[in-house]
Design goal:
The protein is α/β, with parallel strands linked by helices. Helix content is 21%, strand content 34%. The strands form two sheets. Strands 4-3-2-1-10-11 form a six-stranded mixed beta sheet. The radius of gyration is 14 Å and the shape is globular. 42% of the residues are buried.
Length: 159
């Protein structure tokens, strides 16, 4: 089981609640699909295995990178990885053309994205596109859990 979140925009209360859920549900790791905002926010994810994607509002990229390295997290503009014999691509979604190209390439079983703050669960070709929603400027706040072996996705409200 993996956790997915995005667009936290320094909402510390909501981040803390999401981290508690990731730990309670024993997520093997979590992917943050961008718009973390500042390096101190990464501290909230200590104790989790994390992959972070830069978002369009992540201006402190060097600081985020240094803090991620210090905490043992992976971070990048986009990340490809394998999990449970499935191929994943994570990208914030700032450039629609780039996101659409990844989705339509049929190279990936899952594309994880953020940016719009709107939940998305859509199958396009062989690719399942997932946006977990956001923890900022949207109601309700949501994160997601994915069991890639069973292809089971669950959106969870953060209250």
């Amino acid at each position: 089981m993996m956790g997915i979140l995005s667009d936290t925009h320094e909402n510390e209360d909501a981040i803390k609640k999401a981290v508690v859920l990731f730990k309670e549900r024993k997520a093997e790791f979590a992917v943050h699909c961008g718009d973390i905002i500042s390096p101190p926010m990464l501290e909230h994810f200590k104790g989790l295995k994390m992959k972070f994607i830069y978002g369009n509002n992540d201006g402190e990229k060097e600081g985020l990178k240094n803090k991620a390295i210090q905490l043992g997290f992976e971070i990048g503009e986009e990340i490809e990885f394998n999990h449970k014999n499935k191929k994943f691509y994570a990208y914030h979604g700032t450039k629609n053309e780039k996101l659409d190209a990844a989705i339509k390439s049929n190279k990936y079983d899952y594309v994880l994205t953020g940016h719009t703050h709107i939940r998305r669960d859509e199958k396009i070709g062989k690719t399942r596109v997932i946006n977990p929603g956001a923890l900022f400027r949207v109601y309700p706040y949501t994160i997601a859990f994915l069991d890639a072996e069973k292809d089971k996705l669950e959106f969870v409200q953060i209250k």
